[in-house]
Amino acid sequence: MKFYCIADEDTVRGFRLSGVDGTVATSAEDAARTLATAAARPDCGVIILTEPCAAGIRPLVTQLRLERDRPLIVEIPGPAGPLPGNKRIWRLVQEAVGLSLEAEKGAADVPILRPRP
User: 41 and 63: one domain?
Assistant: First the structure.
Protein backbone atom coordinates (compact mmCIF):
# COMPACT_ATOMS: atom_id res chain seq x y z
CA MET A 1 0.00 0.00 0.00
CA LYS A 2 1.42 3.35 -1.06
CA PHE A 3 0.84 6.89 0.09
CA TYR A 4 0.40 9.80 -2.32
CA CYS A 5 0.42 13.54 -1.58
CA ILE A 6 -1.45 16.24 -3.53
CA ALA A 7 -0.66 19.70 -2.24
CA ASP A 8 1.37 22.87 -2.59
CA GLU A 9 5.04 22.73 -3.55
CA ASP A 10 6.47 22.90 -0.01
CA THR A 11 4.20 20.17 1.34
CA VAL A 12 4.85 17.84 -1.60
CA ARG A 13 8.60 18.42 -1.24
CA GLY A 14 8.45 17.57 2.46
CA PHE A 15 6.57 14.35 1.82
CA ARG A 16 8.98 13.40 -0.97
CA LEU A 17 11.85 13.72 1.51
CA SER A 18 10.10 11.05 3.60
CA GLY A 19 9.62 8.75 0.60
CA VAL A 20 6.03 9.65 -0.31
CA ASP A 21 5.33 10.42 -3.98
CA GLY A 22 3.27 13.48 -4.75
CA THR A 23 2.10 16.06 -7.23
CA VAL A 24 1.98 19.82 -6.87
CA ALA A 25 -1.52 21.11 -7.58
CA THR A 26 -1.59 24.75 -8.66
CA SER A 27 -5.32 24.83 -9.44
CA ALA A 28 -8.53 22.99 -8.60
CA GLU A 29 -8.40 21.35 -12.03
CA ASP A 30 -4.88 20.02 -11.33
CA ALA A 31 -5.99 18.71 -7.96
CA ALA A 32 -9.13 17.04 -9.34
CA ARG A 33 -7.28 15.38 -12.20
CA THR A 34 -4.48 14.16 -9.93
CA LEU A 35 -6.89 12.92 -7.26
CA ALA A 36 -8.89 10.92 -9.81
CA THR A 37 -5.69 9.40 -11.22
CA ALA A 38 -4.24 8.54 -7.82
CA ALA A 39 -7.54 7.07 -6.58
CA ALA A 40 -7.66 4.78 -9.62
CA ARG A 41 -4.24 3.26 -8.86
CA PRO A 42 -4.64 -0.19 -7.28
CA ASP A 43 -1.51 0.26 -5.14
CA CYS A 44 -2.57 3.61 -3.66
CA GLY A 45 -3.90 3.16 -0.12
CA VAL A 46 -3.74 6.68 1.30
CA ILE A 47 -4.02 10.05 -0.42
CA ILE A 48 -2.88 13.07 1.56
CA LEU A 49 -4.41 16.44 0.62
CA THR A 50 -3.88 19.82 2.22
CA GLU A 51 -7.08 21.46 3.46
CA PRO A 52 -6.89 24.30 0.90
CA CYS A 53 -6.40 21.80 -1.92
CA ALA A 54 -9.32 19.65 -0.73
CA ALA A 55 -11.56 22.70 -0.29
CA GLY A 56 -11.22 23.50 -3.99
CA ILE A 57 -12.43 20.04 -5.00
CA ARG A 58 -14.79 19.24 -2.13
CA PRO A 59 -17.49 17.52 -4.25
CA LEU A 60 -14.94 15.08 -5.71
CA VAL A 61 -13.36 14.38 -2.32
CA THR A 62 -16.79 13.69 -0.80
CA GLN A 63 -17.82 11.49 -3.73
CA LEU A 64 -14.67 9.35 -3.49
CA ARG A 65 -15.04 8.99 0.28
CA LEU A 66 -18.65 7.84 -0.05
CA GLU A 67 -18.21 5.52 -3.03
CA ARG A 68 -14.92 3.78 -2.22
CA ASP A 69 -13.30 1.97 0.66
CA ARG A 70 -9.86 2.69 -0.74
CA PRO A 71 -7.92 4.87 -0.88
CA LEU A 72 -8.26 6.62 2.45
CA ILE A 73 -8.29 10.39 1.83
CA VAL A 74 -6.64 12.36 4.62
CA GLU A 75 -6.72 16.14 4.87
CA ILE A 76 -3.88 17.94 6.63
CA PRO A 77 -3.39 21.65 7.33
CA GLY A 78 -1.51 23.59 4.67
CA PRO A 79 1.59 25.72 5.29
CA ALA A 80 -0.58 28.53 6.72
CA GLY A 81 -2.06 26.21 9.35
CA PRO A 82 -5.60 24.87 9.73
CA LEU A 83 -8.39 26.60 7.87
CA PRO A 84 -10.70 28.65 10.09
CA GLY A 85 -13.42 26.49 11.59
CA ASN A 86 -11.52 23.21 11.15
CA LYS A 87 -10.79 21.28 14.31
CA ARG A 88 -7.29 20.23 15.24
CA ILE A 89 -6.57 16.52 15.15
CA TRP A 90 -6.37 16.16 18.92
CA ARG A 91 -9.86 17.69 19.23
CA LEU A 92 -11.24 15.17 16.70
CA VAL A 93 -9.62 12.30 18.61
CA GLN A 94 -11.04 13.64 21.86
CA GLU A 95 -14.55 13.72 20.43
CA ALA A 96 -14.22 10.30 18.80
CA VAL A 97 -12.95 8.62 21.96
CA GLY A 98 -15.44 10.40 24.19
CA LEU A 99 -12.89 11.37 26.82
CA SER A 100 -12.26 14.84 28.03
CA LEU A 101 -8.60 15.41 27.35
CA GLU A 102 -6.31 18.13 28.54
CA ALA A 103 -3.76 19.55 26.12
CA GLU A 104 -0.42 20.72 27.41
CA LYS A 105 2.23 22.30 25.27
CA GLY A 106 5.11 19.91 24.80
CA ALA A 107 8.36 20.27 22.92
CA ALA A 108 7.93 22.20 19.68
CA ASP A 109 4.37 23.14 20.70
CA VAL A 110 3.07 19.60 20.13
CA PRO A 111 0.04 18.95 22.34
CA ILE A 112 0.41 16.27 24.97
CA LEU A 113 -2.99 14.70 25.62
CA ARG A 114 -3.80 13.44 29.07
CA PRO A 115 -7.16 12.31 30.52
CA ARG A 116 -8.60 14.85 32.90
CA PRO A 117 -9.16 13.64 36.45
Answer: yes
